[in-house]
């Protein structure tokens, strides 16, 4: 296939309610939506999951826009593509910028699967017809957190993640455990602790958490290994694992019992699949992370999570977790802790053009 042109659209939408974590409170979401069109007029869609500011990782909507327009799209338009896996190979010539890379690479996967007339999840060898889903509480206020958990359980979620940070950890988790002793519960610290907090972190073992996510520094694997030796609760890495090499090192050192895989953080679907394969080989369970994303990215997460190694429910919630109206149709819907994998070709969801246009604040067509 030969890509003829790419449409970049910057979209912006308010969240239904603010989403707070150790680093930032997100109230509205900007993203870049990509539409790639090939020589036969077939379209594929991708979504960039970087935020407006670099609070989670270094990339932003603006750095991704620049990389896509001036560096990555020219590489894609340069010559024909036999298989989407070639894209991550071509992109090895460009350092870093995984979220920008993932945006265009995923769009090409959608296009390729549509050309093959196969649902993307089947094309990549997915074995689950429904994926395990979970939801994240987006508040540090104890009372609203309990209300959110109650509401999520009514909506059919059965795995909940909460955000913790120093001063908002032990008592918060104890309160939740008092109300929900058997809830499948995990905590994400977004790198807000250091090894000086060892006594506190060890004390969290008594809450029977599924795992604790990224307790220590964003770029650390050494101290996480030291911490894991002292804690029963499995440590899950998120921010620390960007490349395949990062994961190999973390496995060698024993820094993680679990890996959170985000397609954007690791530079695309092909890289995400390779990380999954590596973890499967080493018996490290994986789950699919979330980025407060719109439906296109959510659809890729569903496809990824159909792979065999995704044995833990991911942060893949319903479209209505964050949005009044998503940009895909039908919207993503969780039932009894699961999401049905779609049967349509490609990502398996249609673009809600009306909603996409309504959310667009800037768009541009990139040709060779
Ligand atoms: O650390 O996993 C994270 C959201 C934005 C950026 C980073 C993270 C998150 C989440 C929730 O925890 C994601 C979601 O439900 O979409
Ligand atoms: Mg995280």
UniProtKB/TrEMBL annotation:
Membrane-spanning segments: none
Pathway: Quinol/quinone metabolism; menaquinone biosynthesis; Quinol/quinone metabolism; 1,4-dihydroxy-2-naphthoate biosynthesis; 1,4-dihydroxy-2-naphthoate from chorismate: step 4/7
Residue stretches in coiled coil: none
Residues reported to bind Mg(2+): 188, 213, 238
The UniProt record lists the keyword Magnesium: yes
GO biological process per UniProt: menaquinone biosynthetic process
Signal peptide location: none
Enzyme Commission identifier(s): 4.2.1.113
UniProt superkingdom: Bacteria
GO molecular function, one term: magnesium ion binding
Keywords from the UniProt entry: Lyase, Magnesium, Menaquinone biosynthesis, Metal-binding
Active site: 163, 262
The protein's required cofactors: a divalent metal cation
Domain named Mandelate racemase/muconate lactonizing enzyme C-terminal: residues: 142-234
Record keyword Protein biosynthesis present: no
Swiss-Prot/TrEMBL catalytic activity: (1R,6R)-6-hydroxy-2-succinyl-cyclohexa-2,4-diene-1-carboxylate = 2-succinylbenzoate + H2O
Protein purpose: Converts 2-succinyl-6-hydroxy-2,4-cyclohexadiene-1-carboxylate (SHCHC) to 2-succinylbenzoate (OSB).
Family: Belongs to the mandelate racemase/muconate lactonizing enzyme family. MenC type 2 subfamily.
Alphabetized PANTHER family for the sequence: O-SUCCINYLBENZOATE SYNTHASE, O-SUCCINYLBENZOATE SYNTHASE-RELATED
Protein name, as recorded: o-succinylbenzoate synthase
Organism listed in the record: Heyndrickxia ginsengihumi
High-level lineage: Bacteria, Bacillati, Bacillota, Bacilli, Bacillales
Gene name of the record: menC
């Amino acid at each position: 296939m030969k890509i003829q042109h790419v449409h970049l659209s910057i979209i912006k939408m308010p969240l239904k309610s603010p989403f707070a974590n150790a680093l930032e409170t997100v109230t509205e979401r900007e993203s870049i939506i990509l539409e790639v069109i090939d020589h036969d007029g077939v379209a594929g869609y991708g979504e960039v999951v970087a935020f407006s500011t670099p609070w989670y990782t270094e990339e932003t909507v603006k750095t991704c826009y620049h990389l896509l327009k001036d560096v990555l799209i020219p590489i894609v338009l340069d010559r024909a593509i036999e298989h989407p896996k070639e894209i991550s190979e071509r992109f090895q010539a460009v350092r870093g910028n995984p979220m920008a890379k993932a945006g265009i690479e995923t769009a090409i996967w959608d296009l390729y699967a549509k050309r093959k007339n196969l649902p993307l999840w089947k094309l990549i060898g997915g074995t689950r017809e429904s994926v395990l889903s979970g939801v994240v509480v987006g508040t540090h206020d104890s009372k609203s957190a309990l209300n959110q958990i109650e509401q999520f359980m009514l909506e059919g979620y059965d795995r909940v993640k909460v955000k913790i940070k120093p001063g908002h950890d032990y008592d918060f988790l104890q309160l939740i455990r008092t109300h929900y002793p058997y809830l499948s519960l995990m905590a994400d610290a977004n790198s807000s602790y250091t090894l000086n907090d060892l006594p506190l972190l060890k004390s969290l073992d008594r809450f029977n958490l599924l795992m604790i996510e990224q307790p220590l520094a964003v770029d650390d694997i050494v101290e996480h290994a030291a911490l894991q030796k002292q804690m029963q609760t499995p440590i899950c890495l998120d921010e620390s694992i960007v490349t395949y090499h990062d994961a190999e090192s973390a496995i060698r050192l024993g820094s993680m019992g679990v890996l959170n895989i985000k397609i954007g953080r690791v530079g695309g679907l092909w890289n995400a699949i390779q990380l999954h394969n590596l973890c499967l080989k080493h018996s490290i369970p994986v789950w699919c992370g979330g980025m407060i994303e719109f439906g296109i990215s959510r659809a890729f997460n569903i496809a990824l999570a159909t792979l065999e190694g995704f044995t833990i429910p991911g942060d893949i919630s319903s479209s209505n977790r964050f949005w009044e109206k998503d940009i895909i149709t039908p919207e993503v819907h969780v039932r009894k802790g699961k999401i049905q994998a779609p049967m349509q070709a490609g990502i398996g969801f249609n673009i809600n053009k009306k909603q996409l246009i309504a959310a667009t604040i800037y768009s541009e067509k990139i040709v060779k």
